[in-house]
Each structure stands twice: as C-alpha cells, then as structure tokens.
Design a protein that fits this description.
The chain contains four helices and six strands; from the N terminus they run αααββαββββ. The protein is globular. With 177 residues, it is an alpha+beta fold. It is 40% helix and 47% strand. A six-stranded mixed sheet has the order 2-1-6-5-4-3, with helices on one face.
Length: 177
C-alpha cells in the first residue's frame, strides 16, 4: 500500500467513524424522545412512578412541591368519623394545602404508610384506592389514624395531575404520652 492509498483508506475510516457517531447520537436522541412520549402515557408503571414521587413529597412534608401535582380545579372531599361523629367537608386546593401545612407544622414524628394501593386505568383516568395509616404526635398525644383515600389522576398537557381526592378518616385513636 502506498502513501496515497493509506491516506485515502484513513479518510474512509474516519468518514465511517463520523457517520457512526452521528447515527449513534441520532439513535440516542430518538430514544430520548420516545422515552419521553411513553413516560407521559397513562400506564400502570407510569402512574406507580407518579404515586411514588407523591409519597416522597408527603413523607418529606414538601407541601409546595406536592401542590404542583394537583390540578388547579382538583375536587377534594374529606370525611371524618371520630367517636361516632361524622363530618364531611369539601375543600379548595388552597384550603387543602393550608390545612396540610398546618398539620405538618403542628405534629412531630409523622409516619405515613400505604398499607394497600390499587390502580385501575379506564377512560383516560387512573383511579387509585389506598388504605393509609398515619402516626404522629400532636399536643402531647400519640395519634394513629386509618384512612381510605380515593383519587383520580389524569394526563393534562403531558403532565400527570391529581384531579380528585376523597379522604375518609376513620379509626382515629389518641393516647396521652
């Protein structure tokens, strides 16, 4: 092989390497786009991931970030059954977030545990049913409460949003410390 052929051969190799690099970058770019597209589909796995993120925000008491997960028109109902006295209240998003912040600041040793979670996807909505246990200390009393939480999640403008929350608090026990 003479010098001219060697140079020509090196140019061909470099050209192929360059093309492979561009192809690889294109494949990675397309894969990223597809991953983003599929990440914003209402699937069991995507809803589970969304709920895990929601759980982390609740456990870290990050109400401001949790607020971003709620739709502006979220429908919120809280029903409480305490010592046979039943009360049902509808809350706006801002009222719900204010009460949640107030609750987090007035309690210590907060523990939030999902005992059971079911996800059912139907007609472009994810219906979530959870059994939740909460434990905390409030006003020198140990509080343990069980809740049933029903919520609905919808894909709005390529983002998961909670559009409905129904909390049914029952079996609340308070004991002096």
């Amino acid at each position: 092989m003479n010098l001219s052929q060697d140079t020509k051969y090196n140019k061909i190799i470099k050209s192929k390497e360059k093309r492979m690099k561009h192809i690889l970058i294109s494949v990675i770019f397309v894969f990223g786009l597809l991953t983003n597209l599929f990440a914003n589909e209402l699937t069991q796995e995507n809803v589970k991931s969304f709920l895990l993120e929601s759980d982390k925000l609740v456990l870290s008491k990050n109400v401001d970030k949790f607020a971003e997960l709620l739709d502006e028109q979220v429908d919120i109902t809280v029903a409480v059954d305490f010592n046979g006295k039943k009360e049902k209240t509808k809350l706006s998003k801002s009222e719900y977030l204010a009460k949640t912040k107030e609750g987090f600041t007035s309690t210590q040793n907060y523990v939030y545990k999902i005992l059971d979670r079911k996800i059912n996807i139907k007609n472009e909505l994810a219906y979530i049913t959870e059994q939740v246990e909460e434990k905390y200390i409030y006003n020198n009393q140990k509080v343990v409460g069980m809740s049933k939480v029903n919520s609905e999640i919808k894909l709005i403008n390529d983002e998961f949003k909670i559009i409905k929350i129904e909390v049914i608090l029952n079996n609340i026990q308070m004991n002096k410390i």
